[in-house]
Amino acid sequence: MNNKVILITLFALLTACAVSPTGRKQLIFMPESQMVVMGVQSFHQMRDETPEVKDDAINSYVQCVAGAITRLPKVQESSTDWEVVVFDDATVNAFALPGGKIGVYKGLLSVTETPDQLAAVLGHEVGHVLARHGNERVSQNFAVGQSLAILDSWMAASNKGNRQTVMSALGLGTQVGVLLPFSRLHESEADRIGLDLMAQAGFDPHESVKLWQNMSKDGGKQPPQFLSTHPSHSTRIEQLNGAIPQVLPLYQQAQAGGKRPVCKMPKL
User: Fold this and answer.
1) Per-residue model confidence as pLDDT tens digits over 27-61
2) 207 catalytic, yes or no?
3) Residue 61 needs a FRET pair 20 to 30 A away by CA distance; which of 54, 87, 93, 256 works?
4) The model's pTM
5) Long-range interactions of 36-39: CB distance < 8 A, separation 24+
């Protein structure tokens, strides 16, 4: 195995073959049909392992907010039959998966103080699906794994010294230098897409900033941003504040067109 093969493989890692909703070039290898199968399987496994909320008021509230997002034409292009489940778990989180699956943990409702704030979270999670971030992450990990395997084989064949030390350093360097930044990029991109979606659905985009202020109070100490898969709360707030003026016309248009979701918050 020679240097040219290694360089070609590393070039493939950096070469884009798709474009995200924000116009960013992406590395996408997996057929989307396979990602849908994986998403549906993961969702069913989650339902098997985690109890679901039985409270009708909570379920109706989450369905109301989620429905306003999933009925948008852009979201319907991804799936026309979105399924939403509220899990009886105190975790402050939510997720969306390829195949039209959304999971909301009950604990999230203690941090999202308004329907608009819940819409910011769900818009963000659906944004991950629309941007095919799951596919991109799988593709990135595959490309990195293949590249490191080829380099390891070349070093072994060339009798290079300190092979184990070099490979370990490369593995850490790839994680911090490539995969983590890409993950932070995904989070920021999902924030931006989610802002568009919530505004188009008639939710006030200003509430996205209040959401992350709540998250900052609730989340405790974060790791350094360069070692985190998510941007810091302050970074997210700054980015959202910068993007809100761009989506306000979408919100105003939605409101003028009668999109004014009325979702009654339940007592927790």
Assistant:
1) 777 788 888 888 889 889 989 999 999 999 999 99
2) no
3) 256
4) 0.78
5) 36/98, 36/99, 37/99, 38/98, 38/134, 39/97, 39/98, 39/99, 39/101, 39/134
